[in-house]
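Q: I'm building a small set of examples for a reading group on sequence design. Run inverse folding on the following structure and report the sequence directly after it, with nothing in between.
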């Protein structure tokens, strides 16, 4: 066997998720026979101190810079992972694509619909560039069970779908404000921009595109300390509950989407529930090694069953099937899917969120923003 192909990465934005990527690379031998191996050879951040972690832990880093254009000019770099505040997405993502670098970008893939449209236009002009959007939660084994059952057609007519991502990180009103609470940097979507791609990735992949939405948007903490002794305005939405209608060949069904940053008792909970006339299914990261399903026959019992799954991942690993799957595994599986597709594979049947899906999620969030502001049902415009 010859040497494994190496995909050379630059990282723009050296915060938490950049470090998670580096950690996933450090455990790359955990995967069974991947098509290629990523290597971080360059990092960029406007805060030079954040780059020290990468240079101290990765012997592969040969370039550090505070100007992302230096990475785009580096011919040794094949691909970029970009994790920066939402307001920067349009400029950086467009420049990355035009530089011919493959890209995995953080959600929401543009601060708003206009930014996302600009990114899509750049990609249309550079079709050889491979681009995907970050969304790791559907790679949990239990989530895959729900997805595969829904894909099978065995659930019958869909009664309702509910999907959500719930945080409690902002329930403390004295938590110092950060950029995600500032509309000028985070965008008008607020919590929907932070969490919407996570919540919509699976429904959109299954073809469940909302036709109309009615959103309830909440600002629960209106001022926060700035860390300098003053209280300043929070200008983004904390929680959003979106009631959507999805059309099918035989009718329609309701779908509820929740993006909450103030959810009491929820540290970091992603979930998907699909109720059907013949079968139903549910998964939540609160019970990461289990999923629930219900099979119903006319006149029979209606009883949920719970199955322990163990470690049954999209991309095989050396971990024994009896062990548990966690967040860092989901991150690595997402990256394995990105690398596999980049190298000509099919991501073992479940790809990272696509630019088209990111665009569709912007259409939903834009309609939800209008709905929440005006308290009315709004039709979703997927044409932009």
């Amino acid at each position: 066997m010859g040497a494994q192909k190496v995909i050379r990465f630059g990282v723009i934005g050296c915060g938490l998720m950049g470090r998670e990527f580096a950690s996933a690379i450090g455990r790359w031998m955990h995967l069974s026979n991947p098509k290629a191996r990523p290597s971080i050879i360059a990092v960029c951040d406007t805060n030079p101190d954040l780059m020290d972690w990468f240079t101290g832990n990765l012997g592969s880093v040969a370039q550090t810079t505070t100007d992302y254009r230096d990475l785009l000019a580096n011919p040794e770099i094949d691909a970029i992972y970009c994790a920066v505040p939402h307001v920067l997405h349009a400029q950086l993502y467009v420049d990355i694509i035009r530089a011919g670098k493959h890209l995995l970008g953080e959600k929401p893939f543009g601060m708003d619909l206009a930014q996302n449209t600009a990114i899509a236009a750049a990609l249309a002009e550079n079709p050889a560039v491979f681009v995907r959007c970050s969304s790791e939660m559907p790679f949990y084994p239990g989530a895959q069970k729900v997805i595969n059952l829904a894909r099978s057609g065995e659930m019958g007519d869909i009664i309702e779908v509910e999907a959500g991502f719930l945080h409690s990180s902002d329930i403390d009103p004295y938590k110092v404000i950060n950029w995600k609470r500032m509309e000028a940097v985070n965008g008008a979507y607020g919590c929907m921009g932070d969490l919407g791609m996570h919540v919509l990735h699976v429904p959109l992949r299954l073809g469940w595109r909302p036709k109309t939405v009615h959103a309830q948007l909440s600002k629960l903490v209106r001022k926060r300390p700035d860390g300098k002794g003053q209280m300043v305005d929070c200008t983004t939405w904390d929680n959003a509950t979106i009631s959507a209608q999805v059309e099918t060949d035989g009718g329609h069904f309701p779908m509820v989407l929740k993006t909450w940053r103030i959810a009491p008792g929820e540290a970091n909970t992603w979930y998907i529930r699909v109720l059907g006339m013949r079968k139903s299914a549910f998964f939540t990261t609160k019970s990461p090694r289990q999923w629930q399903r219900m099979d119903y026959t006319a006149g029979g019992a209606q009883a949920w069953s719970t199955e322990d799954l163990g470690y049954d991942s999209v991309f095989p690993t050396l971990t024994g099937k009896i062990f548990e799957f966690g967040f860092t595994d989901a991150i690595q599986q997402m990256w394995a899917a990105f690398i596999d597709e980049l190298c000509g594979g099919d991501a073992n049947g479940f790809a990272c969120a696509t630019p088209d899906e990111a665009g569709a999620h912007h259409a939903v969030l834009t309609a939800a923003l209008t709905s929440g502001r005006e308290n009315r049902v709004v039709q979703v415009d997927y044409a932009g």
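The radius of gyration is 21 Å.
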